[in-house]
Amino acid sequence: MKRALFIALVAAVSVIVASCASAPAKPAETPQPTPQVTAPETPAPEAELAKAKDLQQKADTYHLGDFDPDDYATATSSLKAGEDAYGKDNVASKKSLDQSIASFSTVIDKGGAGYLAKAKADADSSKKAADDLKASVAVKDDYGKAQDAYDKAGKEGAAGDLGAAGTDYASARDQFTAVAATAQQKKDRATRALDETDQAMTASEKNAEDAQNALQADGFAPAGAQ
Asked: Where are the domains of the chain?
């Protein structure tokens, strides 16, 4: 009995030992690397670049830099800096382009006012020359067309349309100049005709006087004498 119990215990221990020996060892855990967080890439300021160039083109078309040279110089310098940094340092590029846009906008505001003032002044000078010659009466229809262009330019300028206002002020200027020239021609013709009439009357009076003198010299009584 004791021997059988001993054998059973030995067998049980053998099974347990064999079970432990055959179980695979649990591998050691490998530490996972900490993921690197990459900052999102700043997109290229494409819209800002396009807007800055559009404003530059508008300023150059009407020579607005002549009226505001300091802001124009800042705008062009900032645009170049923005282009140089474009695609390399987009943060710096956008900052420069934003400055360029702001400066070009100032140029257009200040320079636009100067541009329109000059265009209007040129038209006003031609209009005054026509008014001095009373062209609104002497050349009524053409004067009316010139005035229409002048008034239209004023409305376009008030609406901020530099291109249309500049074109119509120039048209009004040229039309007033032509009207003044036509009025001057009419005045010159009328003056010549009057001079010729005066000369004819003077010659007629002299002829009459000469005739009277000739009658007296011949012993005839002057006309109208008793």
From this structure: 46-179
